[in-house]
Structure formats: structure tokens, C-alpha cells
Amino acid sequence: MADYILAIDQGTTSSRAIIFDKAGSIVSTGQLEHEQIFPKAGWVEHDPAEIWTNTREVIGQALGKADLTRHDIAAVGITNQRETAVVWDRNTGEPVYNAIVWQDTRTQPIVDRLAADGGVERFKQQVGLPLATYFSGTKIVWILENVPGAREKAEAGDLLFGTTDTWVLWNLTGGTEGGVHATDVTNASRTMFMDLETLQWDDGILAAFGVPRSMLPEIKSSSEVYGTVEPSSLLREVPVAGILGDQQAATFGQAAFETGEAKNTYGTGNFLIFNTGEEIVHSKNGLLTTVGYKLGDQPPHYALEGSIAVTGSLIQWLRDNLGLISTAPEIEELAKSVEDNGGAYFVPAFSGLFAPYWRPDARGALVGLTRYVNKGHIARAALEAIAFQTRDVIEAVNADAGVDLTELRVDGGATANETLLQFQADILGVPVVRPVVAETTALGAAYAAGLAVGFWSSLDELRANWQEDRRWTPSMDEAARARLDRSWKKAVSKTLDWVDEDVI
Length: 504
Description:
about 500 residues, alpha/beta, 6-stranded mixed β-sheet, 7-stranded mixed β-sheet
């Protein structure tokens, strides 16, 4: 009998394959980073062919390290960077353009054009999202309008669209030789095209965007067998049985299955998801309404989400663009070299500000500088920016939910940074809890796949797997917390209204 589940985690900076056992513990991992392509200011792209090549390789790495074969794998789950858009030719399998990444802001003119009739909340009641460059719908429009021949091919039915889960699934199950063109409800809910109630593509919205329905994948649940891996793969004939967008997958991996449960993921950006159960809750405080998960034929669970564009990628920027550190973990030691931020506040509005502000006109700012400020203060200000942005989002969640969160479950790469997590607890005034398995994104995809094939029997079995690793409790007094938050919000105000029509 197959004793393991393999999860493919196709993320913003890398692709990984992680093998889990029945206890939800990691058996082995394969990982490869892919190139971040920045053709112009505000443009962010990935090479879909590189992503697919890396995906195949990391599967081999994970199997090899654990000395396992396809016979040991009960199912494959996929999780992914959700709003990154790939458009490819169904006949050749070749992308017509690079993947346009969720952080990319080039589609602001398309957003403005669509918002001219009804404002940025024109479709929010149906899809739960404001018009913004973040979501994949406007990225498809940009490709159709700017890639020579793309519109004609799309109208002829020759082009396919998918977020990276769909791109990986299609290739994994055969590509041009019968590949499955599908996505799950969580990824579909990030396009701006899916009606939250019907869980189907909305033809009226597609017409408004000018996107042919023939391009779009079939919408499936998050946990069912979509197809089997194609014959030439190391995983041939293994069922692909789970798909969850990365933040929903992390929520699932945190066993936050019920109404009122929440998690915050610290990755390239930060994403807080608050489970609202089977009820669609429309935010009045700048949050997104999204699908949390759907298991087979069961009703969907919905969620409120606070999406923050730049958190972990700020540390990457300090490393790669400024050379302030040579490896990401060094940021913690540098931040600990000083007692506080020295009066400096770093607002990383590199892609504008996402939740709860939704200000595409904002740009990054480092404020409060004096001659006293050194690189340690800047490092601390960068870490604190992650926590401050999370506080902004949690204030919105508390307002929408009508009840305050009493603790915050956290996951993602940056949760290895204990200085960050202590400050997060301090600035929130609630405990911050990290699980034993911090790779909850991949774990959530594994859980969805395992449930579909009977590897795990129930959500209760998955809940039993969750274990607390460490808890950080607040040690800051309320006056200090209020003073810091006031200065942070003042810093945010300095980033607004930066972008003029004639300014990049």
C-alpha cells in the first residue's frame, strides 16, 4: 500500500515537492528557485517553461532523497501562487508570453478602464474582489491586447489560460496529449470571473473584460481526482487529487477548518485568512471575500482574506537590490544589533498597498530618518513593517467579524525569525502560535489530495495531526503599542498619492 502523499508547491520564488507521511510529517523535500524577471518598473514575470522544468526536477529530488517510487505515493496535491496568469497554445503547449505575476502592476490602466463604469467595486458583490492589478483577470486582458496574434488565437479557441496550478496540472496529466485543463474553486475565486454563489464563470463579467470563455479551465472542487500523471513521468498513473491556492492551502494545513478559525502566512507577501464557514461575508473594511475550500460534493467554505503584497520579498529586496545582507536569515541578527527602530519606519508599498488600503497610487517609503539611524535600525524597521501590516489587516478582520481574534496561528518561511514573531505578538497584544510543521501550504495540498483518495478519513484525523511548536506572548504595554501604531499609520500616509499619470 502507498504510504505517502506528494505535494507540489509552486510558489512565487521557487517550486517544491514535499512528501508527507500519514502523521503529516515531512519525509523529504526537493526545491528549485526560478528567475524573477523585471522588464520594467512595476512589471514582474516568470518563465512558465522554467517552472514546469523545475517542477519535474523537484519531484525527482524528493523521491530520490526518500528512496521512494511512484508505488509509494497514494496521490499528488498541488498548491500555487494564486493570481499569477499563464496563457498558452493548446496545440503546441507553448506559452504565448511569460507568466504575469500577482505582484505585477502593469494592468492599472485596464483596471481604470473597467472601473470607469461602476467604480472599483463594480463586480465585488458577485466575485468578492475589488478591481485591482492583483487578480489574474486583467493580466489575461493585457496579454490578449498586447501579444501579437493572441486575440485572434483566443477567439479561435486555440489559447488556454490558467493560474500556475492549472499549468502544472495540464502538463502533469499529459499536456498536448490529453492534459486536464482544470482549476479548483479557490484559485478560480481569484480571477474576478467566478460567481461566489454558483461557483461558475460569470458570462457577463467575461464579456465586460473581453475574455473568451473557451480559454478558461473547468472549475472543480479542492479535493477530488482530476486525472492521473502522464506515462513518461516518475509519478506515472498516480492520481492528482487536490488543488488549493497557496493561502487557502496553508489555512487547511493549519487545520483551521471551522468558522472563526484563522491563520497568517509569512511568505513573499503576508496573507491572513479568516474562515467564515458556509456564509459569504462581504467586507466593509477592505478585506477580500474568497472561497476557503470545497471538499468533493460538500458545500464550500468561504473566508475573509487580508492580502499584503510585500513582506518576505522586502527582506529579499534588502539582500538582492541593496546588498544589506547576504542571506535572508541574517536580517534577524542585524535587527537584534539595535534595541529599537531608531525612529525609522519602512512602508514597502512596492506594488502599491493591498489590504486594507487598496491604494495602487502608493509607493515604498523609508521615513523618520536621522543621522542616528544605521543599517541595524533599517533591518529592524523592515521586520517591523511585516508585523505592522499584519496588525492593519487584523484590525479589519476584527471589525468585519465583530469579535476580536484571541490568538494568531502563523506559518511560512519568515516564522523561523523569532524576533519578528515576538514583535508580532507585542504589536497585536495577542499570543502568536507556530505549529511543528511550518510548511502548512504544502501540507494543506497533501491533505486535500489524501482525503480524496481515502488516505485520510476525516477532518478530525487531520486536526489530530496539528501540534503546537512554540508560542510568543505579548510583553509590550498598551501605551507603547499605541505609540508605535500611530507612527506606523503616519508613515503609511506618506506613501499615498505618489503615482501621477506621467510618473512611473
